[in-house]
Backbone:
């Protein structure tokens, strides 16, 4: 997840918010992982077609919503 403005610190809160919003839209994730829980782990099925496009759209929508709220 994008670093906080003007710092070198990962944005843990934003990672959790993205996962929460995706869950609310029907897309399941693991909890954020990695350094300070700032990475979003995606584990798609082995056979993916339209589902991956739909999932990426949900992620993009959640990130855009959060970015709009924070500006």
Residues:
């Amino acid at each position: 997840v994008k670093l906080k403005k003007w710092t070198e610190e990962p944005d843990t809160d934003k990672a959790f918010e993205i996962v929460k919003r995706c869950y609310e839209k029907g897309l399941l994730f693991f909890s954020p992982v990695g350094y300070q829980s700032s990475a979003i782990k995606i584990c798609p099925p082995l056979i993916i077609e339209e589902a991956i496009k739909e999932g990426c759209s949900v992620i993009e929508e959640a990130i855009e919503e959060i970015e709009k709220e924070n500006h």
The mean pLDDT is 82. The CA atoms of residues 23 and 57 lie 13 Å apart. The helical segments are 12-24, 50-69.
